[in-house]
């Protein structure tokens, strides 16, 4: 038993010593530690930008980022924030259950899709409580350059 323990101890010391002799001094350069070609200590800040000041009734629909993507918000929402279940000014214009499944009428707000409603037994649609924070999926848009390049395409 003592011989086995002694052999294991000697093997451990030899392994640690051999490993220490193999170690090479390595210098980490701060501009080679991440994906960015700049130092990890740099703090890239985007240029200040403003959202378009288009009023909701003047806004034109924006193209979707990909098929099935949620529509982008083409107008300012400064006066609508914060959006919550109790205070949702978006629904004032976009909650049109009678328009679900019908063709969008130019000049009128885009109605919320059927996925944003729950259907009662009588077939009547009412807004789902799960879709009250619109800006989780729908984003206002601005012309902003990427901090890091993006190769995404449709």
Describe, in short, the structure shown:
With 154 residues, the protein is mostly helical.
Molecular structure report:
The chain has 154 residues and is mainly alpha-helical. It has a domain at 56-60 and 69-136. It contains 2 helices and 2 strands. The protein has helices spanning 2-22, 90-94, and strands at residues 117-119, 125-127. It has a two-stranded antiparallel ribbon. Strand 1 and strand 2 (125-127) form a beta hairpin. The mean pLDDT is 79.
Features:
4% strand; mainly alpha; 154 residues; two-stranded antiparallel sheet; 2 helices; 2 strands
Number of strands: 2
| Mean pLDDT figure | 79
Helix content: 10-25%
Quickly count the helices.
2
- Regions with pLDDT < 50 over 5+ consecutive residues? none
H-E order: HHEE
What's the layout of helices and strands?
Elements: H1 2-22, H2 90-94, E1 117-119, E2 125-127
Antiparallel strand pairs: 1-2
């Amino acid at each position: 038993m003592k011989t086995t323990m002694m052999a294991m101890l000697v093997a451990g010391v030899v392994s640690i010593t051999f490993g220490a002799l193999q170690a090479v001094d390595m210098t980490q350069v701060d501009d080679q530690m991440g994906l960015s070609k700049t130092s990890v200590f740099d703090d890239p800040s985007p240029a200040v930008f403003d959202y378009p000041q288009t009023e909701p009734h003047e806004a034109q629909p924006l193209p979707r980022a990909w098929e099935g993507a949620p529509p982008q918000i083409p107008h300012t929402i400064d006066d609508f924030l914060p959006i919550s279940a109790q205070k949702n000014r978006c629904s004032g214009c976009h909650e049109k259950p009678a328009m679900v499944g019908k063709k969008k009428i130019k000049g009128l707000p885009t109605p919320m899709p059927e996925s944003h409603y729950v259907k009662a037994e009588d077939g009547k649609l009412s807004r789902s409580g799960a879709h009250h924070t619109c800006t989780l999926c729908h984003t206002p848009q601005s012309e902003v350059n990427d901090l890091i390049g993006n190769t995404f395409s449709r």
